[in-house]
Design a protein that fits this description.
Largest sheet: 5 strands, antiparallel
Helix content: 25-40%
Strand order of the largest sheet: 1-2-3-6-5
Distance between the termini: 42 Å
Bound molecules: adenosine-5'-triphosphate, manganese (II) ion
Number of strands: 8
Structural class: alpha+beta
Strand content: 5-15%
Order of helices and strands: HHHHHHHHHHHEEEHEEEHHEEHHHHH
Oligomer: single chain
Length: about 450
């Protein structure tokens, strides 16, 4: 503890609590990084500016970004005891065991600075209490006796092995630090077809084939799109449209990783991460090995609403994105993610309405340019909520053609069976307002779903 600065790296670029930081807005106005490699998110987390953190996350700030000293925003928020921000970062999948240049994790700092509640929250969310820094010190070594005792108990309850995890061969070195999912994949939009290995065909339909495969050590799916008459015009449109789907900045959006056109007779090909549970539709209706109870239903609803709130901040919005349970994927940690690989391209059956059961009545009748997409997406979300709580396929006994006709022209609507929580019923009804202008915005319903989650 004597080496307050040294061993914890506090006199180095970052977590520098003592010195004045200048105005936050000045920091934020600099595009990108300052000379310590702090991102705006680093600053907002250090200064405890919760609403700025929200804004930055909404705008797509990367959660696990590192400064020159390899501190993540979570290191700063933890060190300065900003508990609410720590919670937000964790919710957005911040890595609780990320080590900086000294091998210190956010928990090392929370312990050292006596941020007891933050330390507890970190441990609850998977932070290891026995991980060694470069100097062989664990977070517990840094904590005062009472906190040390409390964390040790908590860690034991959570099933942590309390044997010291040595600095050199720590498990996180190879994975987190190289940031495989985002950092490296981010750079390459155009992929080399020869580097794709296709393992098994999963599905084939009118829009194309879907294969499971590997690419650069990642488990992926490869979508080979079926397009009649692949003209240079279409090829050019493809190259313009797919980069917009490479959205890596929100935990509830599943990016399209890259694309290419396969020889010899070119087919457009897109790739995305392989999701072990498949789509929400698969999970809800095609009997995998877990049941979506009400808690999980609300969690999925919240994930989807967060993802949609983010997509609705984009200007212009992504065209031809249809929200339904087949275009929401479930990740290995049970996070719902909106699939960018399911966004349609301009050359895919223009004008055809996909999966009418989730489409708002006004959207079934009007031309795309006359529809308020943000309002009609909210209707689709209401259908998803209905699907989540009933675990049934909407209008299951009708064909797509019949659904389209009856919803648009005959006032067909999903019926809400008894036994559904009144809170969810109410939310569903608000989101399914017949008047598109009266439906709420996604950022308005996120807090409602968050509250339901606490119940
Ligand atoms: P559309 O062509 O209109 O999107 P679809 O969703 O039925 O129709 P695909 O998108 O090809 O067709 O998906 C087929 C199946 O492949 C889905 O049922 C889903 O289970 C699975 N699938 C799709 N994307 C992924 C993914 N990223 N990871 C794992 N499985 C996936
Ligand atoms: Mn699909």
């Amino acid at each position: 503890m004597e080496r307050r600065g040294g061993s914890l790296g506090r006199d180095k670029p970052c977590p520098d609590r003592g010195s004045s930081s200048g105005s936050l807005s000045a920091k934020l106005s600099t595009v990108g990084r300052d000379d310590h490699g702090f991102s705006p998110l680093h600053w907002a987390c250090r200064e405890g500016r919760s609403s700025v953190v929200d804004m930055l996350i909404m705008r797509g700030a990367r959660i696990n970004v590192m400064n020159r000293g390899d501190d993540t925003p979570l290191h700063l928020a933890s060190s300065h005891g900003h508990r609410e921000i720590v919670g937000k970062l964790i919710q957005c999948k911040a890595d609780t065991n990320s080590a900086n240049e000294h091998g210190n994790t956010p928990l090392h700092y929370a312990c050292f600075w006596g941020q007891d509640q933050v330390a507890e929250d970190l441990v609850t969310n998977g932070a290891q209490v026995s991980i060694c820094n470069k100097y062989g010190e664990t977070p517990l070594d840094k904590a005062k006796p009472h906190l040390c005792e409390l964390l040790r108990e908590k860690a034991e309850k959570m099933g942590q092995n309390l044997a010291k995890i040595p600095f050199k061969d720590t498990f996180w070195k190879g994975t987190t630090r190289t940031r495989p999912r985002n950092g490296t994949l981010n750079k390459q939009a155009g992929i080399d077809y020869k580097q794709l290995s296709l393992l098994a065909k999963v599905n084939e339909n009118q829009s194309g084939e879907l294969w499971q495969g590997r690419w650069q050590g990642n488990e992926i799916v490869v979508k080979v799109l079926k397009v009649r008459d692949w003209t240079t015009r279409k090829s050019r449109d493809f190259n313009e449209e797919y980069p917009k789907l490479r959205i890596f900045s929100h935990p509830n959006v599943l990016p399209m990783l890259g694309a290419c056109q396969s020889p010899p007779a070119p087919h457009p090909i897109i790739i995305t991460h392989w999701m072990p549970y498949g789509s929400l539709y698969n999970v809800l209706h095609e009997g995998t090995n877990f049941v979506v109870d009400q808690t999980q239903a609300v969690k999925f609803g919240l994930d989807i609403a967060c993802g949609m709130a983010f997509l609705h901040t984009l200007e212009p919005m992504i065209p031809r994105h249809y929200l339904n349970s087949k275009s929401v994927m479930i990740d290995e940690d049970m996070t719902a993610r909106i699939s960018m690989a399911d966004v349609k391209f301009s050359f895919q059956c223009p004008g055809r309405m996909y999966l009418p059961a989730w489409v708002a009545p006004e959207a079934l009748q009007k031309k795309p340019e006359e529809i308020n997409r943000r309002s009609s997406d909210m209707w689709s979300f209401a259908i998803l909520l209905w699907e989540l709580v009933t675990r049934e396929v909407p209008y299951a006994d009708l064909s797509n053609m019949e659904i389209g006709m009856k919803v648009a022209l005959e006032g067909l609507r999903p019926t809400i069976p008894p036994g559904i929580s009144p809170h969810i019923c109410k939310l569903m009804k608000i989101c399914m307002n017949e008047d598109p202008a009266k439906r709420p915005k996604f950022d308005m319903i996120v807090p409602i779903l968050e509250k339901m989650q606490d119940k």
